[in-house]
Every structure is written in C-alpha cells, then in structure tokens.
Design a protein that fits this description.
alpha/beta, Spore Coat Polysaccharide Biosynthesis Protein SpsA, Chain A, 2 domains, seven-stranded mixed beta sheet, 7 strands, elongated
C-alpha cells in the first residue's frame, strides 16, 4: 500500500484532551493527517500543531457537515486515493484504519462504514442503542441499503466518491446524508466491525433527544424529496385503510348499540384525514420533483 495516498481527516470541536493522541496514532497509518478545527475555543488547534499534522481552522463552529465538506475539498486538492474520517474525541481507534481501508484497497468497496454493532460488543448505553437503531432503520429506508450503524463517523472513502456528496446538512445528520448519497450514486458500501470507547465520565456535547430528532428530520427531508410517493404515499394509504377499518367498527357498534363509539370515531377521523393529506402531499411533491428533474435534464 506504499503507493496509495491515504488521508485521515479528523473533525474536531473542543477536543483538546483527546485530539493529540488521536492525531499521533492516525499518523502511523496515513500519508497525510488533517485536523479540521471547527471553531474550537480550547487548545484543540495548539495541541494538533504539536502533533505536527495539518490544520484547517474554521472561524466559528459551523457543524460537522461543514467540517467534512472541508475535509473532502482537502482530499481532492491533495489528490488522495483514500480518505478516512474519524472523530477527535477518542471513541475510535486509529489503529483499526488498515482494517477499515482494506475493502477499498483490494477493490471490493467504494466506501467502508465502520459498525459498532457488528460482532464486537461495545457496551453502548441502552438509550444509545435504541436511538441508533431507529436512525439506522430510517437511513436504510432512505438509502435502500442495509447498514447496521448509520451514525458512525469512522469511515473510509475511495477517491471516486470524493465529489459525490451534497453536504446540504451542516449538523450531525450528515452521516445519514452521506450514506444516502453513496447509495443514490450506486457505490458499493461495505461494513466492517469496529471498536468504540464510551467515556461515561465525559459529558456529551449534544442532547441525545434533540440530536436524534435533528437527524431524523434530515432523513425525512432527503427521502421525501427523492421518493415522495414512497415516503408519503404508502404510509398515507396505510393510514387511510386503517381509518376506514375503524370507521366500519364505528358503524357496526352503532347498529348494535345505537351509540357512537366516540374514541374510535376520533381515531378514524384522524387516520383518514392524515392519510388523505399524506397521499396528496406525496402526489404534489412527486409532480414538483418530476418537473424539476425534466427541466434540469
């Protein structure tokens, strides 16, 4: 692999306590290492400089999506063959980089997604596993893929994928967006198991509930725009049919008792109205999307 130019990009925001060791370990497995300091107010930049790696510093905190966009521009500019991304908080093990990039090196993958939930028990907190499973399911629906860990930041990309990302999302939803983009372009994504350290003594920088909702809304936005009939129409039809079923029950109860089952009737109305709304939303978005594609094509 000596003739393969491997870059490692580490998005970092206030990671002064861990960035040094992450950068130094990454240097063992890369041609070039970049720390994207996303407007840190601590010693992230200074410690990265001591580790003798390249640094691009954003003037303020712009979000992980912007940091990854900066990293891919750097990879293209420096004509790298493979770009590895990993977090700067010490959760990922840089010594797993050779294993991560191997599917690309041998030609079996265009991109590799590290998974915390394959084979290795990382002892993730229960609430994390629940939230990750929900977001991964939503991402798989959006990308028509079958990944087991859509929110992991430890990934490898071949140079043919470098200009394939939209980077519409500035925040943490970028992980799902990138998987959707890769799948949409028809790239081969391979998953391999990775380890992950969870430091229970270190407070999380993001609220898990708001983070999850933000990512979920990002997925809805992209899937709704790409396949509105599937995303809105099918759930709408299911809601409509279910509402009709409840309506039949309301009628049967009325004929049997001469009373209206108010609770069931309200559920019926909610399902029917929601279903009709979703179906029409899907149809309208489909027409708009088709018109835009025909004009741009």
């Amino acid at each position: 692999m000596n003739d393969i130019k491997i870059g490692v990009a580490i998005p970092a925001f206030n990671e002064g306590t861990t960035i040094g060791s992450v950068a130094l370990e990454s240097k063992k497995h890369a041609t070039r290492v970049l720390v994207v300091d996303d407007g840190s107010t601590d010693s992230t930049a200074e410690i990265s400089s001591l580790a003798d790696v390249e640094i691009i510093k954003h003037p303020k905190n712009l979000g992980k999506g912007v940091s990854l966009k900066t990293a891919f521009k750097w990879a293209i500019k420096n004509k790298l063959d493979i770009l590895v991304t990993l977090d700067g908080d010490g959760q990922h093990n840089p010594n797993e980089i050779p294993t991560l990039i191997k599917p690309i090196v041998i030609g079996n993958a265009d991109a590799v997604n590290g998974s915390r939930f394959m084979e290795i028990d990382n002892h993730a907190p229960g609430y994390r596993k629940l939230g990750q499973n929900l977001l991964t399911t939503a991402t798989n629906i959006g990308s028509r893929s079958n990944t087991s860990d859509s929110q992991n930041g430890f990934r490898a990309f071949s140079k043919k994928t470098f200009d394939s990302f939209r980077f519409k999302t500035s925040g943490m939803g970028i992980e799902s967006e990138m998987l959707i983009d890769l799948a949409k372009k028809g790239f081969t994504i391979v998953e391999i198991p990775i380890s992950c350290k969870y430091n229970v003594n270190m407070p999380s920088k993001k609220n898990p509930i708001s983070h999850g909702i933000s990512v979920l809304l990002t997925i809805v936005k992209f899937v709704g725009a790409d396949r509105p009939l599937t995303f809105f129409g099918i759930p709408g039809l299911i809601a409509l049919i279910t509402g009709v079923y409840f309506g039949i029950n309301v009628v049967n109860i009325f004929y049997a008792t001469s009373e209206i089952a108010l609770g069931t009737a309200l559920i019926m109305l909610l399902l029917i109205i929601s279903g009709i709304f979703a179906i029409f939303a899907g149809l309208i978005l489909y027409v708009i999307s088709s018109t835009i594609k025909s004009l741009s094509g």
